[in-house]
Amino acid sequence: MKKINTPSKFLLIVAILAIAFNLRPALSGIGPLAEDIGIDLNLSAAWLGLLTTLPLLAFGVISMLTSLFTKRLGIGKTLLGALVILTFGIVLRSLFGVVGLYAGTLFIGIGIAFGNVLIPALTKQNFPERAGAITSLYSSVMAVGASIAAGISVPLATSYGWGWRGALGIWAVPAFLALVIWSFRVKHIKKTNPRRGFTEALKKLSGTPLVWKMAIYMGLQSLAFYVVLAWLPTILVEDGYTSSYAGWMLSLSQATGILGSIIIPLWAGKRKDQRLIIVILVLLEIISLAGLMFPELGMVSVWVSIIGFVLGGTFGLALLLIVLRSTDADTAAELSGIVQSIGYLIAATGPLLIGIIHDVSQDWNYALVVLIGVSLMKLYAGMGAGKPGQI
Hints:
mainly alpha, Growth Hormone, Chain: A, transmembrane, membrane, MFS_dom, MFS transporter, transmembrane transporter activity
C-alpha cells in the first residue's frame, strides 16, 4: 500500500479522534441520570441495568460481523455508516418514551461497536510503529468524552432544566460533527483486498488460545468498566451522598481514566511483555473496590480516582494488545472483531447481573465483592494475553 504523507496522517488522526470522542458520552451519561430515568419511566434497577447491557450485546454481535462489512465496503465507508447509526440512535433515545429509550440505546450500541473494532485496525494500517502513542492518544480522548458526559449530565438535566432527555440528546451534536469530519476523509481510506474470507478468518482465530485469553481479558475489563459506569452514582447515593456529588465522582473516575489511558498504553507499547503491568493494575483495582465498601472512612474520592485510573489504563492496554498481537492491518481488524465480540458478550452480563444482585440483597457490597472476583479472573486471562507473541 502506498504510504500517506505526514499532513494526511495528521488529518487522519484528527478524524480518528473525532470518532473516538463519541464512543463513550452517549453511554456514560446514563449512570448519573439513572434515578431520574427510573422515576420518570417507572423502571426497576434491573431494567435500568438493561440500558447498559443492550449496547454491550450490540457490541458482542456487531463486533463479530464488522470484518464482514469491511471486506465488502472497506473501513472508511463502514465507519461512515456507523456514525449515521450512532447519531440516529441518540436522537431516537431522547424522543420516543420507553420504546425509543431502548431502541435508540440499541442503535447507539451498534454504531459504537463498529468504531471500537475499526480504530485499532486503522492504527495498525497507518501507524504500526507508533501503536502505543496512537492508542494512548485516542483512548485518552475516549476517556475525555466519557468524563465530560458523566460530569455535566446532572447539571444539564437539573440546573439548566433540560431533563434527562435533553442531557442525553445533546450528544447527537458532536456525533454529527464527527460524521461530517469523517465524510471528508473517507475517500482517502483505501479499501484493501482481503487475504481471506470472513468464515476462514473466524475459524482460524477462534481456534487460537491466545485469542480466547485476549477476549476474556477484554470482556472482564469491559464488564468492570460498564458496571462502574452504570452503578457507581447509585451506589454513592445509597451511601448518603447527593446525586450531584455522585455524578461528579463518576466524572472524576473518568478523568483519572484519562491519565490511565495515556500512561499505560505508552508504557506497555515500549515493552514486549505486558504481564507486570497487568499484575499492578489488578492489585490497584482490588484495593480500590475494597475501599469503596467502607465509605465511612471518607476516602471515596481516592478509591474512585484509583479505579478510574485502572479501568482507563486497562481499556487502553486491551486495545493496544490487539495491535501488538497482530501481524498486519487485516489481522488486526479480524482479531479486533472476534476479541471485542466475545469480550463484550461477557461484559453484557455485568450491569444487569449487578442490578439483580442489588435487587435481591439490597446491599451494594455484594456487588463489589463480585467485582473483586472479576479482577482475579482478569489477572489469570491477562497472564496469557500479556505474554509476547503474534497471530
